[in-house]
Amino acid sequence: MEERNVLSVKDISKEFGSNKVLDGVSFQVKTGEIHALMGENGAGKSTILNIMSGSLKMTSGELFMYDKAVNFATPLAARKAGIVKVHQELQVIPELTVAENIFIGNEIKHNGSKFLWYSRMRQEADKILARLDADFDSTRIVKTLSAAQKQLVEISKAMLYDFSVMILDEPTSSLTNREIKKLFSIIKKLKEEGRSFIFVSHRMPKIFALADRITVLKDGKCMGTYDIEEVDNKRLVQLMTGRELGNQVKNVRTTCTEEVVLRVEKLCGKKNKFSDISFELHRGEIVGLAGLVGSGRTEIMRTIFGADPKESGEIYVKGKRAEHLTTSGSVKRKIALVPEERKTQGIVGILPNYENICLSSMRKVGRGGPLASKKLMATGGKYMKMLNVQPYMPDLPTGRLSGGNQQKIVIGKWLCTEADIIIMDEPTRGIDVGAKHEIYKLMLRLVQEGRSIIMISSELPEIINLSDRIIVMHEGKMQKVLDAEGVTEEAILHYAMGGE
User: Fold this and answer.
1) Whose CA is closest to 180, among 156, 160, 199?
2) Pairwise CA distance, residues 1 & 194, whole Å
């Protein structure tokens, strides 16, 4: 197979008003290559991907496909040219079948009629699914699929366009290790056919397991393109952040007190999603919640917060029984929930940053008649500075921020309520190594101030380094409670898989 540059980015810049988010970025993607794009949140990755895929126009610069200049006005134009993007938030319609999702916008019709040819679409969809070794067929309703299976539906859509370059934005963020392994085998199989991939991930081991070359962005500038053998974790962190992050952030486990701020007794969820959950949370403590996907971790925390109804059991907050669990009641009790799905459950993307930060505190902060907006802006700005949100633009719509900065806005929203029991569901999913360290340090500072945290995480080093105690879940039940001091990843996985 002849090695050529299938896609070339040359001196591309992008400005939003006075804010320059890309500054002369250049790199090339070769045929049959898996090309990783790395950088901190806010480095410009999403912007350059949106320009390549036709969602955004560049301010200056050039884009080439096989040495021919292109400038896509729409995502459809990019797809027809052979560039397809699989978004981190999957673009599927849950109520439709797999075949209907794959052919949406490209429906096959009976010859000479306006009627859709469903049987033909199912046949063609099944051929594509067979090529991808899918374990489901085209008649399945998409909402019944797992996250990994939905991702295969998105990749199947791309196969319709006979793509040259596929952009994968954080494809592993919600997958198990087994699902990631299968996805990687599919990518490698398509690579052998001469297809190219641009792969974005903040999980460094996955980058080193898959990529051929890496391009690093920092503050909108290209720091260089490197063969995978040329760099290691330490070098990548230096390129991405301009500094060494030093040792891992660890909980010294000295802030936990005897005072119980939350007690859960024999809590059971609806439809047997979890049962007989009992534990205590102390002031100044971080309790980690570990377990495989589907073990009931998120459902338990949503029930404690009042977002989902309970079947039975009791919850006590600072010694008082919490009756009629509701989200508004939890806010009054100073309980917060930083959700796993920040874009759909944590923020309102079209609202400005300062309003998102003040959303759960409107009764307190939003009073004051004509002066209310100034007060909201000042309050939002205060928490943006505290959390180092970049760019510092309180009136910028939050949906325009990078993932890590959006997560800081969600955390700021709950700090604004002065919550002292904070539930964090996958707090660092899909964010870069620098932002992770900032959030880790913030968590430790919060417990030093006397607040308490429950953290759900699928990253075992994160659970071990930050927790005082670890609750391991298996199929909706508490399998084991471990002291985090000296615990190993192997021990957590043993109990997460049902070991005694």
Assistant:
1) 199
2) 7
